[in-house]
Specification:
Layout (H helix, E strand, L loop, with lengths): L23 H29 L5 H32 L8 H17 L11 H13 L17 H8 L1
Length: about 160
């Protein structure tokens, strides 16, 4: 009996999928959107067939189809909004733009340059701000070559006027 010696095959085998399951609020909004869209399509189809057969139900069904189209569109937008809100509230980290990252690096360099060797920060935060602003002023515009000459130093009065 050869067929009894074979190992039993499983009826159900789960494959690993690349996509994760949608969060529950997003999934609930998506189910609502699918149901409302399907009802709208059914209404539109019935309104078409009633219009073809010259039934008196065609006009009321056409009006409800238009209203259902508005509701179905709103429900599809609700899926998108719910997804974005869930991402913001539940820890999906957005990456800062390269410009923001560059400014942060410049501020960090200016802060380190302004520190006293003992580890205590230099007196006055205005010096740190001036250093960051000077570094920002020295940065070339997009597509330009960096200038060799030094940019004029900004004074504390400039820093205070910019802060206000």
């Amino acid at each position: 009996m050869v067929h009894e010696a074979r190992p039993a095959r499983q009826l159900w085998v789960e494959d690993e999928r690349g996509r994760r399951r949608m969060p529950d609020p997003v999934r609930a909004a998506a189910v609502r959107a699918v149901l409302l869209t399907s009802v709208t399509l059914i209404q539109a189809t019935m309104a078409f067939f009633f219009a073809v057969t010259n039934s008196w139900l065609a006009f009321p069904l056409l009006l409800t189809s238009v209203g259902s189209t508005v509701v179905a569109t709103w429900s599809v937008l609700d899926v998108w909004v719910t997804r974005q809100v869930w991402r913001q509230r539940n820890g999906v980290v957005s990456e800062p733009s390269s410009t923001a990252r560059q400014l942060r690096r410049e501020r960090r360099r200016a802060r380190k340059a302004a520190q006293v060797p003992g580890g205590d920060p230099a007196p006055g935060a205005a010096g740190i701000r001036q250093g960051a602003e000077a570094a920002r002023d020295e940065r070339p515009a997009r597509g330009e070559q960096p200038a060799r000459a030094e940019a004029p130093k900004r004074t504390e009065a400039h820093a205070l006027s910019d802060a206000a």
